[in-house]
Amino acid sequence: MNRKQRIMLIRIIVSMLLMAVLSAIPTSGILRFVLYMIPYLVVGYDILIKAIKGIARGQMLDECFLMAVATGGAIALAIYTGSGDYTEAVAVMLFYQIGELFQSYAVGRSRKSIAALMDIRPDHASIEKDGQLERVDPDEVGIGSIIVVQPGEKVPIDGIVINGESSLDTAALTGESMPRSVHEGDQIISGSINMTGVLRIRTTKEFGESTVSKILDLVENASSRKSRSEDFISRFARIYTPAVCLGALLLAFIPPLAAIISGSAPNWGTWIYRALTFLVISCPCALVISIPLSFFAGLGGASRAGVLIKGSNYLETLSKADTVVFDKTGTLTKGRFEVNGIHHGTLSDERILEYAAIAESISTHPVARSIQQAYGKAIDRSRIGDAKEISGNGVMAKVDGKSIACGNERLMEIVGVTPIHCHSVGTVIHIAIDGEYAGHILISDTVKEHSKEAVEALRKAGIKRIAMLTGDSGKVAGKVAAELGIDTVFSELLPADKVGKVEEMMEAKANGSKLAFVGDGINDAPVLSRADIGIAMGAMGSDAAIEAADVVLMDDDPMKIATAIRISGKCLRIVYENIVFAIGIKAACLVLGAFGIADMWLAIFADVGVMIIAVLNAIRALFIKER
Fold this sequence. Notes:
Elements lengths: L2 H22 L4 H29 L5 H19 L5 H32 L6 E5 L2 E5 L9 E4 L9 E5 L2 E4 L1 H4 L5 E3 L4 E2 L4 E2 L4 E5 L7 H12 L5 H34 L6 H15 L2 H20 L2 E3 L2 H7 L2 E7 L10 E6 L5 H12 L5 H10 L8 E7 L3 E6 L2 E6 L1 H6 L12 E7 L2 E9 L6 H10 L4 E5 L4 H11 L3 E3 L4 H14 L5 E6 L5 H6 L2 E5 L5 H6 L2 E3 L5 H36 L5 H20 L8
Parallel strand pairs: 11-18, 11-20, 18-19, 20-21, 21-22
Antiparallel strand pairs: 1-2, 3-9, 4-7, 4-9, 5-6, 5-8, 10-22, 12-17, 13-14, 14-15, 15-16, 16-17
Helix pairs in contact: 1-2, 1-4, 2-3, 2-4, 3-4, 3-8, 4-9, 4-20, 7-8, 7-9, 8-19, 8-20, 9-19, 9-20, 10-19, 11-12, 14-19, 19-20
């Protein structure tokens, strides 16, 4: 508990003890009134102050105003009737504050999971100068700088390990407790904690563009994006509160006035008591508090599992998804390509690989990087002349004055060269030199360890259709799809074709259902934006993909997609449970209160009791069982 919560708990305990003492002491008249006002003010003075401030600002139709009117009216009624029964007024305020304490504690619990992410913000970066480590602000470190991360320190900026090996604690980023080993040449993301060895890292991004900065930005802005359910509750409260206040006034005055008109004696005390009971019952705090809290807890639970959802509106949309469409490379597969052979070469394998590596050096595609890695030598960029990348097809460049075309069969058609088909399964990169076919390079990618389990988990989570989009050949795509059990495959697609396929599937899906697209590359950004819900791989995914996505998986594990869907489904079930429960109980008690069947004690349950139950139910959204 924080300091504010501890003070509130002390006030509640003191008030309860005073009530217990007063119930054992026979008092009457002014002395009884003064003594009972002590526990009333101890527990409720802040509510009365807020109510007065609200009236002064003209904003008096909130819970504090309702509590002040209801309890103040009950006190006035006790004085008017001479009963001296101030217990109900104190009890209403006391139980309301107990409910507020529960709500504050619940919000605190869900905030802790968000706050754990805030702890990943680095305080400094260490740069080596003249043999000494100098601490600087991470914002001052440029791309390509060499930073040193000691054991126990946070990695401040994304980069590549150039020296050292260590284990990293990535729990705050991914929700995984197992340390991750890194060695020279490995990419490393900011926000993780270096556990063992000293690491020297060459930065690949500025601090503002690093993973840690983007995560914090996503978390800090998530609560600003409200779901339709939250907007409904806000609109409902704005109409509901003045309506019930008017209803209470009519209940207090219409029956007595009707009795006067008919010549009967007006029973003002009875009807005012019923109106006050009606007010206490009608307080909408169970809905106003528990619904946003449910979404907040859902976002917190997702972040603990290594899934960042950018707002409760996306959480609600994700719960309605029945179709999931995957990009292949880097999403279902590792995106770590290896050259497995060079076939039908008209030159030596070394020469073909050299030309291909130099031409592909203008591209950041994983295939291009694998060719350069297989070449294994520094690229002399002075050998490159005119060069351009043809999206989805490959690259064309001048190397040593020769025209090099390096890409798929469509690129060969563009340059007027007839390729030789490869009978092996894998990604085939055809090479043409000066308009003549020179051979092809066979490259293969491997499926991620959990991809098959992820597909099975999605079906268990209620996903009806799973599809895969890829620019690879039909043979490669079909092999991956068969291995993973994917329903539908669309292969040999350009980035623009992927958008078209997603739009076709969105038009064909059932009303009310949603389509989720999962990708990681720059060319996936348009599709992530176009889908009902975009899910990006956050650890090694491109900045454009993370920016365009609505959900980010922090460890690139496709199993987390099913986790996110289950979290969203559980959160929405809790929201609907709270709406039905709160409105149902309140509606029944309002009718009973209007007819005088419900007294102030039942009103306390209908208000505070329902709120506590709804809040406790909302906390469940924080917890999700991993499967």
